[in-house]
Amino acid sequence: MIRACTSLSEMSAAFAPIWHYFGHLPPSEEATKHFHRVLTPERTIAAFDGARATAGSAAFDFDLTVPGGSVKAAGITVVGVLPTHRRRGLLTQLMRANIDAARERGEPVAVLWPSEDTIYGRFGYGMASQSAEIDAPRDRMGPYRDIDTSGEMRLVSLGDAESLVAPVYARVARQTPGMFARSAAWWQDRLLIDYPWRRQSNGALQCAVLEIGGEAAAYAFYRCNPGFERGSSTGNVLVVEAMGVDAAATHAIWRYLFGIDWLARVKAYFLPMDHPMLLSLAEPRRLNFLVREGIWVRLIDVGAALAARTFNAGEPVVIEVTDVFCPWNAGRWRVGQNGAERTEAAADLACDVQSLGCVYLGGFSFAELSRALRVAELRPGGIARADVLFATSAKPWCPELF
Predict the structure, then answer these.
(1) How many CA atoms lie within 13 A of 42 on its CB side?
(2) Which end of the chain, N or C, is less packed with Cβ atoms under 10 Å?
(3) Longest Cα pair distance anywhere in the chain, in angstroms?
(4) Is 62 known to be catalytic?
């Protein structure tokens, strides 16, 4: 039986399958209570074999930034099926239940970080962004040009951090597709409580804040991981999250991180593809800038999802969309500067809903999809016109796993 959970104990049972793959026993009551601060039982769906949960998933309630606006989104998480019940269609049933529930709640979009890139395409998810990581020798991170930055850098306790860093995050999130609004509960439970399981073998979570004119302009969460070999440092600074409200503040916070003494390397994950450090360093190849896939997007209600974002000025295009898993989306959609609507007009291009998810946040273009043989141009110039409409000035970015 597939159904929503009705209690914390059922929610804990729904988490157990994915906990199994992470090498953990089912979550304790205390761990589930912490999770409950940002997720309710009714947004958690499980497959029950008798009284035992054999598969589970959940959906956070997100306000997701899209180009020019925001959209209600289901942040799909903790998806897992016990190995004793694999290949029985439970994952498909979970995905069906999550999409149907999100549609009923009026959430036109679902978003997730995939554990494997072959799983979610068949449910209509498309790779909507890319993410990068670095593993850089700290002593080779000199700037392309010395830049004087005003302001004061100071360390703050995790208990005092939220009031300083939350406004910085909110300002960046409002203008960055792929980011989502964080509640106070999210800050406290997901970032500012340094649980031992989250720390693992790394150092304690530190917070540095750059203040300019008495106001926070940038911050960094990081861990210092010392290590020595024959008397020389082999340790690293592990950057958990760092951002600034503008280019100067972003530059300053990363100069701070690259300047922490006594540690040999700087590591970071989940960085944006267009991170300014690629052009602000004298030796960018030393970053070891490794590109990976980022978040994947599923348009549950194509019309409402397209209506939530803005489009540039340009000639409208008609896109013919196929969607096997959510057939209500199939059809032709006229997209222009004034929004999107169903139409019977001849299509300029055709693609599946997965590919539409790839371009939705601006992470990829229709031209790129065309070169990958994932979109068909039905009328000359259709792809070029679509790219004019969908183009964004910044690459989408989600700075954390969820």
Answers:
(1) 5
(2) N
(3) 73
(4) no
CA 252 – CA 218 distance, rounded (Å): 8
Task: Supply the pTM of this predicted model.
Answer: 0.95
Residue 31: band (very low, low, confident or very high) from pLDDT cuts 50, 70, 90: confident
Q: Give the domain ranges of the chain.
A: 2-107, 132-292, 300-390
The catalytic position among 35, 120, 222, 364 is 120
Would 2-107 and 132-292 be classified into the same CATH topology?
Answer: yes
Instruction: Take residue 75 and report the two structure tokens written for it.
Output: 């942040």
Fold assignment, 132-292: Aminopeptidase (3.40.630)
CA distances to 6, 79, 80, 171 from 54, in Å: 16, 11, 8, 41
Q: Per CATH, which fold does 300-390 belong to?
A: Nonspecific Lipid-transfer Protein; Chain A (3.30.1050)
Reply yes or no on whether 125 is catalytic: no
Percent of the chain with pLDDT over 90: 93
CATH entry 3.40.630.30 includes domain 2-107: yes
Is the distance from CB of 225 to CB of 202 less than 8 angstroms? Answer: yes
